[in-house]
Amino acid sequence: MSQKTVIVTGFGPFEGHSVNASWVSVQELARLGLTDDIDLIISEIPVEYCTVKTIIPSLWKQHNPHLVVHVGVSTYVQELTLEQQAHNDGYDKHDISGSCPPTQCCVEGADTCIKSEIDMQHVCNEVNNMPIEIKTVVSYADTGRYLCDYAYYQSLHIDKRKAAFIHVPPLGCPYTAGEIAEGLRAVILSISNQL
């Protein structure tokens, strides 16, 4: 049985989130593990455009993954929120180093919006039928025009068949890192089976 590589990223701290629920939950996921035939690689990404622009292509190139899942925190969500698309422009919010892309764009000359080819509604339905605490919803909206959207667009631009983004609520609102990790695991395995 050949090993499949799955990369899961979480973000570092930023304003209002001295502890980022995404990275804490991804670390918890690493403790849980996925399955024996999946090599899970986790990476913490700073909330910084220039770092995201280099680190994401480098993770794809280095590991040739079966799947890349980015996880980010949002105070606007109360469930695991599966994002279906990302945008290329409108990046005018400053990152942790006070910068934003000079052209407010992710990939020069690329499509305005890229949709993931993963059927997130199918994943959502499957996970919501599992005996786990956390619930899942699909978002077809804007992923936020900040580092979440920016990172997701980078990956979708590389391979929209194998890129996903999941927004998680802040810790304790209402779920623990363990409950979020259990949900992430269920979502990732459902996506992996779909590929």
Automatic annotation (TrEMBL):
One of its GO terms (biological process) is proteolysis. InterPro entries: Peptidase_C15, Peptidase_C15-like, Peptidase_C15-like_sf. GO terms for cellular component: cytosol. Belongs to the peptidase C15 family. GO terms for molecular function: pyroglutamyl-peptidase activity. The keyword Hydrolase applies. The keyword Cytoplasm applies. This is Pyroglutamyl-peptidase I. Keywords: Cytoplasm, Hydrolase, Protease, Thiol protease.
